[in-house]
Fold this protein.
Amino acid sequence: MQHQQAVTALSAIAHEGRLAIFRLLVQSASDIAAGDIAQQLSIPSSTLSFHLKALQQAGLIVSRQEGRFLYYSPARDEFANLLAYLTDNCCGGAGCPVTDKGETVCQN
């Protein structure tokens, strides 16, 4: 991931509403219709469209159309790239140790 891509992605989720949308999508086991996102987060449709567009332009979410409905899901590979970029030099570039529970433990 390039530096500017990381800045764009972080800027997109640096808003309370967009962060809530992204977290909802990440926590979901399947795609979520735009109307369901609006209902679950109590976001007006016009505001939701604005936020979804920003997240999509940042590459953090993807959409698919089924009939007249749009369904959204996180762009998991792009999010993984963002996390990798952010932690690239963690622990001096040696990588952080992992516990027997699979949790990363940074010693810095």
Observations:
- Residues 3-93 form a domain with the Arc Repressor Mutant, subunit A fold (CATH 1.10.10.10).
- The radius of gyration is 16 Å.
- The longest strand covers residues 61-66.
- The chain has a mean pLDDT of 89.
